[in-house]
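Ticket opened by: R.M.
Priority: normal
Category: complex prediction / small molecule

The reporter submitted a protein together with adenosine-5'-triphosphate and asked that the result be attached to this ticket for the collaborator who will pick it up next week. Submitted input follows.
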Amino acid sequence: MNQKILVVDDDPFIREFLLEALSSSGSWAECAGDGISALRLISEKDFDILLTDLRLPGMDGIELLRQVKQIKPGVEVIIMTGYGTVESAVEAIKTGAFHYIEKPVNLELLNSLLEKIRQLKSLYAENRLLKESISKYRKNYGEIIGSSPRMQEVFTALEKVKGKDLPVFIYGESGTGKELVARTIWKESLRADEIFIPVNCGTIVPTIAESELFGHVKGAFTGALKDKKGLFEAANGGTLFLDEVTELPIGIQVKLLRAIEQQKIRRVGDSKERSVNVRLIAATNENPDSSLQNGKLRKDLYFRLNVVSISLPPLREREGDLELLLDHFLKKHGEKRGIGAITEEAMDHLKRYHWPGNIRELEHFVLRALLFRTGEMVGIEDLAIINRGMLSHKGIDLSPPYSLKEKELDLIKAALQKTGGKKKEAATLLGIHPTTLYRKLKALGIEPRSI
Ligand SMILES: Nc1ncnc2c1ncn2[C@@H]1O[C@H](COP(=O)(O)OP(=O)(O)OP(=O)(O)O)[C@@H](O)[C@H]1O
Ligand SMILES: [Mg+2]
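Result attached by the on-call engineer:
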């Protein structure tokens, strides 16, 4: 690409000489004899480069440089100095000149400077394009954070389903955000002002699953002492989130399908049907294809629920999201520097780790990191304590005298101390289920209040 150069010198011979030299080397050049006319030309036309003498009548080269940088900051300036004083050259560079060149001008040197500017400009342009292409990716959708291409697909699906009363089927490994996505869909739906009921089908006792979902009437079975509404009736007008839907007994799946198709339910032991109007969102962390194959999910129900499907990628497949999420969780839990609080070395490990518990595991990691870090920053030496799995393949010394049992004890004590003895909160900090913590406390003979 030809560069457009404005040459400014009060000596007409030098102007002529440079004009010819520049034109013959493929540039497109114009001349001015003083600063004022140079400024006028610069503001009227698009120049890439200003090549100006330092000493000019009226406005000098440095002042011209200053003013050009104000009106056209993209124009690169080379100052010519006949006096070779270091001071003026330094001042020129400080004021924003690209470089200076001594008079008489060495054409070879000038051409190499021009070439450098050309390369730099194309680098800038490339950089700008790159930035634009990055910023095309949104970094979140409501509370759902992620800028990876995989998450952009999720955001597109969410955008499409917004305001539509369709069933949605969400699939994703544990901790990938299925419930967060379900709630987001509900909040953006026509039923946003109506109730949202999440149901973990995995925790429903199979024998009472029908009564849980559809209710029962008094005397329907032993223990049915009075009429009871089921979840469908409770969610009437609103949204029911059937989490771990493949855990529902097959017989109940048939009844569920009927309820969806006919928008009617029958309480256990009742003879009459009742109309219900419920929007369903279902989720599973098992691959639906395998669930269909191994008979845990009825095909007809799946097709009914899977009008819109959203597949949430595991964290290890979300390019770039780890940094974004770490930064978010660190700030959320009080570390102002965000990701700046993790050393590069530790970050390397986190990137290589496979995060089987996905975003939930990541947030628990952050909580523990903030609690147990030994220095200002979260460093590699902390990772062994925070999450043993992260370093297990790195040959880090985890052996006695500091045994795993002792480490566990220390972690539990620290968590209980931090939470003032509250076991449930301590369990969350440790990333384990409260019952696991109770069991461990019992085994270790610890009384939480005594800590
Ligand atoms: N993309 C995300 N951005 C911010 N927070 C997220 C994101 N995904 C998940 N989380 C958070 O991680 C935690 C786990 O998410 P959620 O409970 O929705 O996962 P899940 O897929 O339902 O897990 P499970 O299969 O174990 O039930 C929640 O605290 C949620 O708010
Ligand atoms: Mg869930």
